[in-house]
Amino acid sequence: MKAINEHRAIGSDDSENRCVEVKREEEVTPRRNSIGRRAFLGKSFAAGVGVMGVGLLGVNQTAGAVTEIEEDNHAALSSGDAALLRFPAALELLEADFWIQYNELGGVQDSEVHGGSGNKPYTEAFEVLDEDMPIYIHDNSDDEITHHQFLNAYLISKGRAPANLDSFRSLMGSTATGVNPAMIGRRLTNLTQLTLDTSWWTRYRDDSHNPDLDPNHLFPQAVPTLAVNRHTAIPRTDADTMDSNFLQAIANTAAYHFPTVEQGGSSLYPALALKAKREEVTRILLSIGPTETMHFQTWSDKAGNAPPLTAVDPVTGVSVTFPDLEVEDELFNKSLIMPEPCPFLNRNLPIVSIIRPLKIRAMDVLQFLTAMGLFIGQSPAFFSYMTQLAQAADHARRDGDD
Q: Radius of gyration (Cα) for the chain, nearest Å?
């Protein structure tokens, strides 16, 4: 595990890690001043909790309970449990990297997710799908940043090496108006050559098949043309913003990229949690995982709003067609965003609404993201490091040694 131990720092890039001064200030002041929707919901929920009282939702922490928690912080973390946290920490670093790219151009740039200044035509193309898309992009970016920061901080608190990808920041990214110029040539992920598997759309609408029980079943693609060739999800240069139809195709591609990634986290986190030895590690994985599911459902809903169109990339000549999914066919109907019940465990049991698949390995996720084109241009050392992390997570066992 030499490669892992050599990476000892969380990472210091300002585009993904809020500066130390900001973090210290956040310890004594509220985090959010700029986004109203979440703050309003948070205040409303807090008021509701006050009415219901701590007996239902509160936690009564006695002095003894606090002492127990403090002592537990120094308990040993097995190498297997560390691997189960380190691989998702690396994935969250990668997610934060591409969400920050989206936020720089089409989200909300503030002290929480700073960098960039926005690209008005690209942002307006997002707002065709939903006027609140920039806020959702910002909040998803913020979530992923906090995920990798927490996972890495927890690993360090237990004396274990964190995930660190700083040495692999070498990809160009966009040079269009609105990007953070300091990050040009310093990206981890490539959003300009994506091939998207949108079969999750029909997988979650199919009441007869479950990939865990039917591993050879082929779920139809929602957008077949995204599953072939390479497509950009961000304007590569300002030239990509000149043709409004092509720019809308770029925003549509991004809208399908969002849930395509987030559905992977919905499956991975519970799958990893089943392998953890330590209850606290299980708790971490089962607490972060559902947020990925919330992201997935939000974005699967917004993707259905992508306006039908056909566009040709003026640089590559690749064509993409976004179909009208306001249809009666239940496999494609854009309104059916709730997970359709499907077979689970045994076909003799009733169908049930579940996350699927759950029989998934860390290597499956890494291979899925690689096939997507997200890492085109990355070095062999990057793939070696990520493969090592994935294999370590896959080898972890609840009943394993140490």
A: 21
352 C-beta neighbours (distance < 10 Å), count: 12
Residue type at 230 in one-letter notation: R
> From residue 23, how far is each of 69, 161, 164, 223 by CA, in Å?
23, 22, 19, 42
Q: Write the DSSP symbol of residue 9.
A: S
CB–CB of 115/104 below 8 Å? yes
Distance CA 197, CA 375 (A): 16
**Residue 399: predicted pLDDT:** 84
- Residue 385 phi, psi (nearest 5): -65, -50
Inform me whether the pLDDT recorded for 335 exceeds 50.
yes
Instruction: State the pLDDT at residue 198.
Output: 98
CA distance 102 to 263: 18
Whole-Å CA distances, 92 to 73, 248, 253: 23, 27, 21
Q: CB under 8 Å to 175, separation ≥6 — which residues?
A: 184, 236, 237
Residue of higher predicted confidence among 12 and 87: 87
In the DSSP assignment, the letter for residue 345 is S
Nearest alpha carbon to residue 174 among 123, 236, 118: 236
Domain ranges of the chain: 2-30+80-395, 32-74
Q: What are residue 194's phi and psi, to 5 degrees? A: -90, 145
Nearest 5°: phi and psi at 70?
-60, -40
Measured between alpha carbons, how far is 400 from 231 in angstroms, rounded to an integer? 43
